[in-house]
C-alpha cells in the first residue's frame, strides 16, 4: 500500500516534471552577424525579443559575432580582458542594441555595432509562460555610473520588481562576483524571481545604460495553472492501472 502510493506520487512528479518547469538558454548563436532579432525564438522557445533605442529613430536588437576581428566595435571581440568568466570563454553571438541602420533592409545589419549613447535604450524579452528564474551574461559593461544598468520584471503588464547590475558584484544582494570593465564578460546565475518578487514574471526588460551586450539568456518557465492541473490529473489516471 505504502509502496504503490509512493509509485503513484512518483508518476505524478514525473508527469509534472516533464510538463512542468523547463529551463532553456537562448545563445543567439546560429544567427548571422548583424541579424535583426525579434521573432526567431517565438516558436522554439516561447520568447519574443524587442528593442528600444533611446538615441535613434530605429529600434533594433541584432546579433553580434564576438569571435570576429576587425568589427565596428573591438570591445565586443574575444578574447576577453576581465569579468567573472575566463578570458578564453567563447560566447559566439551576443545581442546588442544596433547603433546604425546601414543595410538593414534585408534583415541583417551590414555594420553591427552597439549603441553607445547613455543610456542606450532597452532590450525586452517577452515570455509566453511565466518564468521563475532568470539568468544572463553581461558583456563589456564598464561599470561606471553613467552606464548604470538594471533589469525590470513585469507580469501581465504590471511592474513587479527590478534588479540593478550593481547587485551582482561581490557583497551585493545577488553576488555573482561580477567585475565590470572594458571588454569584460560576467555570467549572472539564474535568479529566483519568485523568491525575489513573490510572483513569476512574463517579461524582462533590460535597461541598457551604455555600450554593452548580453548573451545566454537563461530562464525557467512554468505552465499555466490550468494546464498543470490537467496534466497532474492525467498523471494520476496513468498510475491507476498499475495499482490494480
Ligand atoms: Ca552566444
Ligand atoms: Ca544587410
Ligand atoms: Ca559600439
Ligand atoms: Ca567598452
Structure ligands = calcium ion
Number of domains: 2
| CATH topological fold name of the largest domain | Jelly Rolls
Describe the sheet with the most strands: 5 strands, mixed
| CATH architecture classification name of the largest domain | Sandwich
- Class of the largest domain in CATH? Mainly Beta
Shape: globular
What is the number of E strands?
12
Tell me the structural class.
Answer: alpha+beta
Can you give the mean pLDDT? 89
Count of helical segments?
Answer: 4
Low-confidence stretches: 1-18, 227-244
Query: What order do the SSEs take from the amino end to the carboxyl end, as H and E?
Result: HEHEEEEEEEEEHEEH
Instruction: Give the strand line-up of the largest sheet.
Output: 1-12-7-10-4
Q: What is the percent of helical residues?
A: 10-25%
Through-space gap between termini: 11 Å
β-strand amount: 25-35%
Rg from Cα: 21 Å
Structure explained in plain terms:
- This protein is α+β, with helices and mostly antiparallel strands and 244 residues long.
- It has two domains: 1-20 and 224-244, no CATH class; 24-222, Jelly Rolls.
- The protein is 19% helix and 32% strand.
- The strands form three sheets. It has a five-stranded mixed beta sheet. Strands 2-6-11-8-9 form a five-stranded antiparallel beta sheet. Strands 3-5 form a two-stranded antiparallel ribbon.
- α1 runs antiparallel to α4.
- The radius of gyration is 21 Å and the shape is globular.
- Mean pLDDT is 89; it is low at 1-18 and 227-244.
- It binds calcium ion (4 copies).
- One calcium ion binds next to loops.
